[in-house]
Design brief:
Helix content: 25-40%
Strand content: 15-25%
Bound molecules: glutamine
Strand order of the largest sheet: 2-3-1-4-5-6-9-10-11
Distance between the termini: 51 Å
């Protein structure tokens, strides 16, 4: 035992004692962090504390639940364990657990995807259980393939580790394909018949330039898939779940493995619980835990850690759950929607480091499904409550911004008093990573106070202050500048509400929006821009048709009034580039004819002469005189919030950048704006110019989505589209009536305030 290790161990012990007894705080991370600072190879030494070895659970969704269930199953089988049960899953959390808990037979750890590369080669675990990979915290990870590479590298560095993986996920299957380790595939061998969501990850084949197709898809990119061009397909399942039934009492299925088929059950009634069930079962069978012990652990599983936790408060059923990415959120919405009764739903989105600073992904959640459910009252909370309220608004859901869950309950009391909701309306609280603990603590406190009658609720105002922003009358910024000054939101006339402007039918020809390649360029919530453009027309009673031009499909740009291209990962962007290059001439005619085009990040890069994919030079469309270079590796990305000044906007523009490429504009090409915040870079590391403008084309690195906090730019694009429609169809040009943009402006103001 080295002196360094002894010192690290002592520091871990002292800090654990101090945190627990003096600061009265949990000691899940800090002791490990201090000890690792003293001895970076700490885990090598601590490995010996798990006499028979260890298991590591990784994956985007379901880590904590699955790992805790595994821990219970190990214990039910009479095995002693060391486990990071609270979900502290970086090297510091795993080290803390190893330092604090007594020597045991097994280590059962959950580990963050990007930290596996540090942890696994040191622990040399017997098994890695890989659950799934979804877009999550892309501001930390860049693009999903970076996580894949990192996990594959970790496994290659620990070649004796067995990889037990979800073969229904093409992203996990690709890792299994590449590593030298022994692998065990599990999956669900029949369709659960679920309604599908709009955006899924990994639509492009993992091996070639083909697209992934499905015999059936469960949710996200999970399912029975195959490539339309090569032999990439779901591998043969070593553990296959069949005869799956999902009822309110839970999920039951038969799992067929090497030793035969057995029936298992989990009391959690969700499709993702079905995946966690087959994952944990496969791992348990591999390590020799009997099905009886496994089932006993399942039946008793009730971690009360805020994940799918039920309460009974004041005569109401309350359900709390974590959701931190579009796939998780969509699954939660399915639970909420299944309850047809009156209910209050409170969403909480924070943007701290552990959540990811970028919350553009909330636009990839299908909140639209919740709109129109009768007797549903929705609230938006968390540090990005205003952004959430905007997202919900464009889904057709009016959500007041709340301070915290207590505020939601007091507003619920007012709604009950007013007769809007019955006293026993169900409550759903869904929160992302750092937003969850305060909600969890508050609900636990309320539960502890039961059965005492809750204090009479104080009625609170629900509506936010109204405001409106001026709608431009022309797509030419110089003309709008000559026109009326933008109205002060506080003093402007009350504008028409979405409902009063909507018209059921109209004889006008629709405005045609072409959303280019949403199956390839869809990674950063950019599709939200299209929803915003579409809704802002609908709210004004202007008919609109969105054409989603998928990979391999053609489009006639002469019949289009607005073109949109989003951002995407490098591989997908390259395939998109190739397809767009084949349409280059028609697109050039469209642009030269003043057709409006909004292109974000990867889509923006494609507009230039060329861009770099790794070292490979990819020809661009050459619609704007610019090019994109790539000085660093994929780790060297420009990732941050940014505030811009733009001639197209009277208020500051707030965006979020996440790109490896650096764009340089040609002589005389105007930027979309200038970065005025201390954070954020824009086009490159040098000139603080952000994006580009040419005719009615806007290219920008701003995710967010851009238009969610910039209705003015949305309306500028729409004004251009209306002029084009008038010319194209020979119908009179329509005006854009002002809309109530108070929610968008509040979201903008709250971010500008934070970033300046
Ligand atoms: N793949 C491109 C890059 O990293 C674009 C990324 C994006 O669209 N966010 O530069």
């Amino acid at each position: 035992m080295s002196l360094r290790f002894s010192l690290a161990k002592a520091a871990g012990a002292v800090s654990t004692w101090g945190l627990r007894h003096v600061a009265r705080r949990p000691a899940a991370n800090l002791p490990g962090k201090i000890a690792l600072a003293i001895d970076p190879s700490l885990l090598d030494e601590l490995r010996g504390k798990c006499a028979q070895g260890s298991v590591i659970t990784v994956g985007t969704n379901g880590k904590t639940s699955t790992n805790n269930l595994l821990a219970d199953a190990f214990e039910a089988a009479g095995r002693t364990i060391i486990c990071n049960r609270t979900g502290a899953n970086l090297a510091a959390g795993i080290s803390s657990a190893l330092l604090q808990q007594p020597t045991a037979q097994w280590g059962v750890f959950e580990c963050d995807e990007l930290w596996l590369a540090h942890v696994l080669p040191r622990l040399r675990s017997n098994y890695v259980l890989l659950l799934n990979l979804f877009r999550d915290q892309l501001d930390r990870c860049g693009e999903i393939d970076r996580i894949q590479t990192s996990i594959a590298g970790a496994l290659a560095a620990s070649p004796d580790t067995v990889l037990v993986y979800n073969a229904d996920d093409p992203l996990c299957a690709r890792i299994a394909d590449e590593v030298p380790n022994r692998t065990v595939a599990y999956g669900l061998d029949e369709s659960m018949g679920l309604a599908q969501n709009t955006v899924t990850d990994a639509q492009m084949c993992q091996k070639c330039d083909g697209m992934v197709r499905y015999h059936y898809r469960q949710y996200g990119q999970l399912g029975d898939y195959f490539c339309d061009q090569c032999d990439f397909a779901r591998p043969t399942l070593d553990f296959a779940g069949r005869d799956i039934t999902i009822t309110p009492a839970g999920v039951t299925m038969e799992i067929c493995g090497p030793a035969g088929c057995e029936s298992v059950h989990t009391p959690q009634p969700t499709p993702y619980a079905a995946y966690n069930l087959v994952a944990a079962y496969a791992l348990c069978r591999e390590v020799g835990i009997s099905t009886a012990d496994f089932q006993r652990a399942q039946d008793a599983f009730n971690p009360r850690n805020g994940r799918l936790q039920r309460y009974r408060l004041g005569g109401r059923d309350v359900l709390l759950n974590l959701a931190k990415n579009p796939t998780g959120f969509n699954q939660n919405l399915k639970i909420v929607e299944a309850d047809q009764g009156p209910k209050m739903v409170a969403f909480f989105i924070n943007d701290q480091v552990a959540d990811g600073h970028d919350i553009s992904w909330i636009w990839d959640i299908d909140f639209e499904e919740l709109a129109g459910q009768p007797g549903t009252v929705v609230f938006a909370g968390g540090s990005r409550a205003h952004d959430l309220a905007v997202r919900l608004k464009y889904a057709g859901i009016e959500a007041a911004v709340i301070e915290n869950i207590e505020d939601a309950f007091s507003r619920l009391g007012a709604l009950v008093a007013a007769g809007t909701l019955p006293a026993d309306a169900a409550v759903y609280a869904i929160a992302n990573y750092t937003a969850l603990p305060p909600v969890h603590a508050a609900l636990n406190a309320m539960e502890a106070a039961e059965p005492a009658v809750a204090p009479a609720p104080t009625p609170a105002p629900i509506a936010e202050a109204a405001g409106a922003s001026a709608a431009p009358t022309s797509c030419h910024p110089e003309r709008s500048a000559e026109g009326a000054e933008p109205k002060d939101p506080a003093t402007s006339e009350p504008s028409a509400t979405p409902a009063s402007l909507a018209s059921e039918e109209s004889p006008e020809p629709p405005v045609i929006i072409a959303h280019m390649l949403p199956d390839l360029l869809n990674l950063y919530g950019d599709g939200g821009n299209v929803r915003i453009l579409e809704q802002r027309l609908r709210w004004r009673g202007i008919p609109v048709e969105v054409r989603r031009i998928q990979h391999g499909e053609a489009v006639d740009f002469s019949q289009v009034d607005l073109v949109f291209m989003g951002g995407g990962p490098d591989r997908e962007q390259k395939l998109a580039s190739e397809q767009l290059l084949a349409m280059r001439d028609e697109l050039a005619v469209y642009v030269e004819g003043d057709g409006p085009l909004l292109a974000i990040c990867g889509g923006y890069q494609i507009l230039g002469r060329q861009w770099l994919w790794g070292d490979e030079l990819v020809p661009g469309l050459g619609l704007i005189d610019m090019e994109t270079r790539r000085p660093g590796t994929s780790a060297d990305r420009l990732i941050d919030n940014m505030v811009l000044e733009s001639p197209l906007a009277t208020h500051p523009v707030v965006g979020y950048e996440n790109h490896a490429g650096r764009t340089y504009l040609g002589e005389g090409v105007e930027g979309f704006g200038r970065v005025v915040s201390s954070c954020g870079h824009g086009n490159n590391d040098d000139d603080r110019v952000e994006g580009a403008r040419y005719k009615n084309v806007v290219g920008t690195y701003s995710h967010g989505p851009l238009l969610s906090k910039k209705p003015e730019v949305a309306d500028w694009l729409l004004a251009c589209a209306l002029e084009r429609r008038a010319e194209r169809t020979g119908t009179p040009a329509a005006d854009l009536a002002p809309l109530d943009d108070s929610a968008e402006l509040a979201a903008n103001a709250s971010m500008v305030k934070r970033l300046s």
